[in-house]
Amino acid sequence: MSDPLKLASEFPSADYASWRKLAEEALKGAPFEKKLVTNTLDGFSVQPIYTNDDQDDATRLIHEVLNATVEPRETVTGWDIRQLHTHPDPKATNAAILEDLENGATSITLKLDAAARAGREISSAEVGVDGIAIHCLADLDTALEDVYTNLATVGLDAGAAGVPAAALLAAHIANTDGADEAAPAFNIDPIGTLASTGTLPCGAQDAVDHAASVAVELIDLFPLATAISVNGAPYYNAGATDGQELACLLASGVTYLRALTDAGMAVDQAAGAMVFNVAIGTDFFAGIAKLRALRMMWSRVLSASGAEDATITINAVSAEMALTKVDPWVNMLRTTVTSFAAGLGGADSVTCLPYDHLIGLPDGFARRITRNTQLILQEESNVHRVIDPAGGSWFIENLTKELAKAAWSKFQSLESSGGILSALANGSLKTEIETVWNARKKRLSTRRDPLTGVSEFPNITEAKVTCEKPDLDAIIADAKARQTKFDGTVGNSLNAMIEAARAGATIGHMFTDLYGTSAATCIGALPAHRLAERYEALRKRSDAHKAKTGSFPQVFLANLGKVAQHTARASFARNFFEAGGIEAITNNGFAIADDVATAFGDSGAKIAIICGSDPQYADMAADVAKALKSKGASMVYLAGQPGDARSAYEAAGIDEFVFVGADVLAICGVALDHLLGKQGEK
After folding, report:
1. Within 10 A of 547 (CB to CB), how many other CB atoms are there?
2. Measured between alpha carbons, how far apart are the two ends of the chain, in Å?
3. pLDDT tens profile 582-623
4. Spatial separation of the C-alpha atoms in residues 545 and 51, rounded to whole Å
């Protein structure tokens, strides 16, 4: 008799062997390893199912180690909801900051404009471009007016000007009440700057050493602050795998750790002065495993360095590589995934990028969505209430272990070849990441890695999202009015820079006095990529054609027979070509070839795609192709694999075949060239 209190006790016990047998039967001869096992770009395989038998001493230890890296208070307060601000006008930025902090955000990051990040003066053409026009203390005071820096962390994104910008922020906070309780994130990061821009104003090692010496002074002034950012985003957004990003984070972290201890910090204090900035993509489980693996590996580094505290500070940010300009509304789903993974992975702060981040300046609605995404995860889903909530999952524990192994091996390789600075300088790291990006491109081209709203389920007629276009001339005029003349000389110490900032020195002035006016280090930068960029290039050509002519470039769906006979392949073909910005003219189907050809001729299209079932193709495809050609079709496609009939179809006039696994980008690119001319609207 079965136990009535035991769920499913009347069923036989399940085991892996019986499941494997049923799975192979369902595959009907297809290879198990090919169909159900996923081979990652990091070189390890992910199985379709895991059991307790897949646990070993290493995986069982992961949860125990990670528990030691988390402050229990974080399960009460939740992670820090950090909002990125980029509006060029400090006044508009201030209004947005106050609104965000009042409505759920708990900290902010100020991204300085391109001129300030490069250490240029207000006369530069890059003022107000891609960031806030903060060039002097008065600008920063304007942006942070009424912001309680002892309650809300203020972070910086200042590029090569990280040290002068840190001096401005230090000067601002020192003038406020409760300065000793402030926990700013100065985010000085010469290694990340070198990776993303290819330049530094001094030697790379000199920049690291100078950052470390300034960090010592910053932590003396603000013991709760973090001074150094270890940034993995430049690597991930260049196409790197999760394992490669982790390896670069470890190698950069170790480089900074050495510099900080050489500058006089104890190991524990040096580790506490750093924050790891990690890019999270839309692979949900990989995002969780990446943060868990980082926490585990950094704990190992600190243990080997003699540290007593294994705590790590992590800021997780939505990976720009995963966001799209096309159908940006789907970005809300993507950033929900990235924020959820970050929370489960143990991030201390999370920067959720607005859905229109790639298009322009986000408005209040876009910022509200980013806040509320995280508030719902915290206050309604209670994601933060458990320490290491993924612990004990056989799948995630194994994924964490395999990812850590791959990353650790790469980290050791980087260290043995001279470290992260050497790998950036000699181009070897760039070459490795480019190899991975090329592998990603193939998967994207064939939609093996689909992009919702871009390569899958595109909507080319959807209204475009528009963003505010600020008056840069007015913003620059205001910035010039806030500046005061400074004729002094800026010293290398933090205190000297703070005093100079109070006297009116600009970031550009401090930068020039510290480093000069020309870049001393120049390497090949890691190019920033996005998964959707090549599809968006095709869509841009299509949109330009529509703006010029009033209509999208078009293809005609030559549907055969009744709707039930052609709808599957007609839908596939429409999805296929509209991913490339080519509108599909559809219909209810035709029974004979001449009717198809007549309808095609009336449509005004130049390209036709034959859509139907395999039996219909055997009976009609050749005749339909010939009829379409006779009516002026300059190119004819067939939706589906041609099989043994390829030669016969090609002899009848079929030029190309579209099917699952075909190169969408290549085929749509050729079609656009045919419809618009090779130079048309490029």
Report:
1. 9
2. 74
3. 999 999 999 999 999 999 999 999 999 999 999 999 999 999
4. 54
- Rounded (to 5) percent helix, strand, coil in the chain: 50, 10, 35
**Residues 6+ away with beta carbon under 8 Å from 663:** 445, 446
Average pLDDT score, the chain: 93
Q: Which pLDDT score, from 0 to 100, does residue 69 have?
A: 67
Q: Which residues contact 99 (CB under 8 A, 6 or more apart)?
A: 364, 367
Burial of 466 from C-beta contacts in 10 A (0-12 / 13-18 / 19+): exposed
Confidence of residue 371 (pLDDT cuts 50, 70, 90): very high
Residue 2 has pLDDT above 60, yes or no: no
Mean pLDDT of 56-75: 74
597: Cβ contacts below 8 Å, ≥ 6 apart: 624, 627, 628, 630, 631
Determine which of 122-131, 277-286, 288-297, 378-387 has the lowest per-residue pLDDT on average: 378-387
Q: Which residue has the tokens 């130079």?
A: 679
Q: Is 391 exposed, middle or buried (0-12, 13-18, 19+ CB in 10 A)?
A: middle
Q: Strand, coil or helix: what is 109?
A: strand
Q: 38-39 and 45-46: which strand pairing?
A: antiparallel
Residue closest to 582 by CA, chosen among 636, 539, 535: 539
Q: Which amino acid is at 605?
A: A
**Residue 370 to residue 236: CA distance in whole angstroms:** 21
- Tokens describing residue 242: 């999760």
| pLDDT in the model for residue 27 | 93
Which residues are paired to 590 by β-bridges? 560
Q: Look at residues 253, 258, 236, 237 and name the one whose alpha carbon lies nearest to residue 245.
A: 236
Left if phi > 0, otherwise alpha if psi is -120 to 50, otherwise beta: which for 589?
A: left
Using pLDDT thresholds of 50, 70 and 90, give the confidence band for residue 284.
very high
Contact 340, 306 (CB under 8 A): no
pLDDT band at 391 (very low <50, low <70, confident <90, very high): confident
Rg (CA), the chain: 29
Instruction: Answer whether 188's CB lies under 8 Å from 194's CB.
Output: no
- String of DSSP letters for 580-613: TT-EEE--S-BSSHHHHHHHHHHHT-SEEEEE--
Burial class from Cβ neighbours inside 10 Å (0-12, 13-18, 19+) for residue 39 reads exposed
Q: What's the pLDDT at 240? A: 98
- Please give the average per-residue pLDDT across 497-516, as a whole number: 93
Q: Quick one: angle between helices 284-304 and 394-416, nearest 10?
A: 50
Lowest mean pLDDT among 230-234, 254-258, 366-370, 474-478: 474-478
Residue from 107, 140, 61 nearest 226 by CA: 107
The 8-class DSSP code of residue 88 comes to: S
Cα–Cα dist 274/348, whole Å: 13
| Contact by Cβ (8 Å): 159, 190 | no
- Give the amino acid at 636: V
